[in-house]
Amino acid sequence: MLNWIGVVLWLIPRRIRPIWLTLAITSFGVMATTTIASASEIYSRAIAQSGLQHVIATTSLNALNGQLMVHDRPIARADYESLNSTVNNIIQKRIGTLVNQTNRRGQTHPNIPFAYSSEPNRASLNIMLGRPFFLTKFEQYSELREGNWPSKDYRIDANGIYLEAVIGEQAARSMAISVGDEVFLFPHKTDISQRITLKVSGIAHPSDPFDPYWLGVPFYFNLQEVDEKPLIPFYVKESAFLDGIGGRFSALVGDFAWLLYLNTDNLRYESLQDTREAFAGLETDINKKIPRSLLLTLLENSRGTGLLATFQQDLLWSRVPLIMFVTLVLSIVFYFLFVILGFLGRSRSPEASILRSRGTSKTQSICLLTLTEGLIVMVITITTPFLALLISKTWLLTTIQPAGTWESSSTGLSLYTFLWSGIVGILTLLILLLSSVNLSRIHSLEFLRSRSRPPNTYLIQRYYVDILIMVIMAILWWQLEQRDSLIGRAISSSSIKINPTLLLVPTLGLVTTSFIILRILPCISRITAKWISYTPYVWIRLSFARDSPGFPISWIDYSNRNDGDRDLCTRLRFSRNAHEKP
Questions:
Q1: Full DSSP string of 5-72
Q2: pTM for this one?
Q3: How do beta strands 160-168 and 229-235 pair?
Q4: Tens digit of pLDDT for each residue in 375-388?
């Protein structure tokens, strides 16, 4: 083994000079393909992350934040504590990493009659409605115009409950309510002796109505309308709502909500599908454990029309042209690398025949013929991702100018960059290996035979290859026509996928066209030569006559054929001279 390694190390520097042209072409092909693949992967990641930040930055934060609403629940403390614990556990389990903070809201149904008097007549109970509510951190984001914030104290007696409340400025102005007034809510229309007495301790307005805390519109301060009746919201303390109203009127039901303030800066395009599945799981878990619940957010929904779903589909559509372009370029480079290495392989026939004639096996010949190029491919495959990153940061990433906080400096190398570079390097190495396998079959006899009569038929020219490529092209084209799209959506999930086989349609179309050109061009050459044969200029007729019989790259074929003819003539001349000697 050590002797064989020593022989290899001795042969490598001596092989570089004779095969410098092959090495140069191989190095250029490997560097071009690996750089294109690595730069495309870096650019694709940059487009994805910058596009996500752009979409988030151009969307209102109020729309991105969400509400988890639960309807028709008892407003007593015991039931609410259990409900709050269940909801918080599900939120933390599903989207805990995305949630900055959570506020809670509770309110009665909008069907409690309102009156200015403690003993109203029956008809007045059908005119106006009132709704007590609590909202965590309400006092931090509001300001008092008059009075004070309500206290936690409440008083329960035989006639109901007495507690303090704050009303919005616009609602107080519309209903002519002032600080110190007492208003009444009647949970039971048929029994006006049971009432909720609210003493207005203050009048408030929002500190900043556009703050994300309000999730859009601070409707708590305005007069609302339900069934063409005015609805007056009253802010009370959480303890007064749950223990006071809920404890005294345990039959009352209400609606609860958890306001979710999301940290969208933590969103990464790599975890886009996981985030969508997390929101879908949140909605599923809530509906399983808590009936009549609803999740509202523009970020994601179960219908697949949320911001993330739309962006994911747009991202896939934007990547299709990039993938098709890269596939076409790589296919063209690989195709011409294969063809050129096949033609240049003739110049390495003496080397291959000498190796086989000196007793090397077929496997050893393949290793020796591929070793130098393989080492170069490995070095280039490892180093070109850094070149691709330099090109991307210098030129490609400067073309991306999204809104938001994305910066091109945040894009760097990843495992996928080296993975794509490695895949392209392996494909190039396979092409070199195929060329070496072809050369390893050459013995001294085949070498001399090929010099005397060069082969005119190559693997790439055989008709069954043409037919196979055309059949594959037809099948993929038919499949694309049936699907009508490169992108499909899975029935069992909301994920969107690209069918990679259909992306080969343009590439196979290009390869099929090149094969057809290889078949048609000789006929065109013959017809053109026949037409040119009538011209009086001999040099033009001779040029077309020499090129017309061969295939399109006829100068290589004829140069090799002429070399073989000259060698044959030389051998015949020396043989004749030897016989003529006395």
A1: HHHHHHHHHHHHTTTHHHHHHHHHHHHHHHHHHHHHHHHHHHHHHHHHHHHHHTS-HHHHSEEEEEEE
A2: 0.69
A3: antiparallel
A4: 888 889 999 999 99
